[in-house]
Amino acid sequence: MPMPVPQEERQYTYADYLAWPEDERVEIIDGVPYLQVTPSPEHQEISMNLSTQISVYLKGKSCKVYAAPFSVRLTKGDEKKDEDFKIVFEPDITVVCDKSKIDKQGCKGIPDWIIEIISPTSIKHDRITKFNHYEKAGVVEYWIVEPEGKLVSVFLLQSNGRYGRPEIYTEEEKITVSIFPDLALDLSAVFPSILITEL
Predict the structure, then answer these.
(1) Rounded Cα distance, 166 and 150, in Å
(2) N or C: which end of the chain has fewer CB within 10 A?
(3) Structural domain boundaries of the chain?
C-alpha cells in the first residue's frame, strides 16, 4: 500500500490536497494523506490503451473519461467546504456521466465507473481500501487491472449495495461494459506485449 505521509496528528482534508506540491501525487483516505508511487511505463501504456478505447466510444456522448492525475472527492452528501472532504482519490481512469459533478478541480461526487491498475505497492490499497470506499459510495462499476498476470477483475454493484463476485477476464478476451452495453473493450489491445523488467 502507498505509504502514509509523515504528519502531525490531525485530519487532512481536500483543502490540504489542493495545497500539496504539484510534483507529488497524493490521496487522502479518512483524513490520512498517502503519497502515490510514480507509475511504471507498463502502467502508463495500459492506462493509455484503455482510455483511448473508452474515449473513442464516448465521443459525442454526455459521459466523459478522465485519466490520472484526476481527483475524485467521494462525498457523503453533507460536505459544504473543501475542509469537509476527507476522502480524495486519484483513480487511474474515471468515467463520469453527470456533468454537474465535474468542476475545475475534478469530480465532486460519485463516478459511474472507476478503473485501477495495480502495482506491487498498491495491491492492498486497490483490493481492500479503495474497494470498500468505492462500494460504500455506490460506484456502479469497478475494474482492477493486473499488469503482471494480464487479468481484469470486474465488480458490479448489486441491488443490495454490495459488489458481487468478480468476473475475471484474460488478455485474449473482450469485456462488455455494464453501464455501456454496446461497448466491448478488447483486452488484446490493452496489455503491452513485453513487460519491462527491472535490472
Answers:
(1) 15
(2) C
(3) 37-189
Residue pLDDT, tens place only, 159-193: 999 999 999 999 999 999 999 999 999 999 999 87
d(CA 134, CA 153): 15
Third-level CATH fold of 37-189: tt1808, chain A (3.90.1570)
Whether the CB-CB separation of 154 and 167 falls below 8 Å is answered with: yes
The per-residue pLDDT for range 117-167, each reduced to its tens digit, is 998 877 888 899 999 999 999 999 999 999 999 999 999 999 999 999 999
Residue 9: exposed, middle, or buried by beta-carbon count in 10 A (0-12, 13-18, 19+)? exposed
Cell of 120: 506491487
Cα–Cα dist 154/88, whole Å: 22
Q: How far apart are CA 52 and CA 11, in angstroms?
A: 37
- C-alpha cell belonging to residue 92: 487511474
Closest CA to 53 of 176, 198, 199: 176
Cell 488484446 locates to 188
Q: Are 194 and 54 in contact, with CB atoms under 8 Å apart? A: no
Ramachandran area for residue 128 (φ above 0: left; ψ -120 to 50: alpha; else beta): alpha
Helix%, strand%, coil% for the chain, nearest 5: 25, 30, 50
Q: Phi and psi of 137, rounded to 5°?
A: -75, -30
Contact assessment for residue 28 and residue 16, using Cβ atoms and an 8 Å cutoff = yes
By residue count, the chain amounts to 199
